[in-house]
Amino acid sequence: MNVAQNEPRKAFYGIVLGIWLFVAVYAIAHDQYLVRIAPDHFTVYHENPEGIESAPVLAAWTALKASVTPGLVLGMATWFTTRSGTWPKIKAKHIFMAVCAVISVTELSAATTGILAYWTKSPLYPVPWYPDLRPSLVVTQTIQLTCYFVAFLASAAMLLMLGLKRKQLKRDSPS
Questions:
Q1: Domain-by-domain residue ranges, the chain?
Q2: Helices (H), 38-133
Q3: pTM of whole model > 0.85?
Q4: Which parts of the chain have pLDDT scores under 50?
């Protein structure tokens, strides 16, 4: 794989795998509180071909598996946006701070909608998007749906902002 001119492979893998690791740790931690609200969210409504008996372990395993594609795609898109080509590169610490901001915005939004679903005792999204209308599952599914939507939007916004920052660095750099 031709990563980029003047960019060590370890920087590419460090950024891509680092972002996936942030996403994986977040997903596991996030699902650990969901499983305590509604264990059925994982034990009934997720596949368990591994035969895992413990709901928290199943939640962690499910989160880990679910984080691979989005984490690696976000990692590669972020690397491409911030490090590929000849423009000035965004420092890794700034990249990871941006990823932490995405995670924070995502979780704050998800928790807020979960609280709203708990208070109103009703779905915030279309009813067919819920596997069951028991209050605990309405809360956890609302949280999950919000996570997916906000993570996508916040990630796109992050990529846009990092790309604009890189463009600014190019403009400001001596030619």
A1: 9-169
A2: 40-43, 55-83, 92-120
A3: yes
A4: 1-2
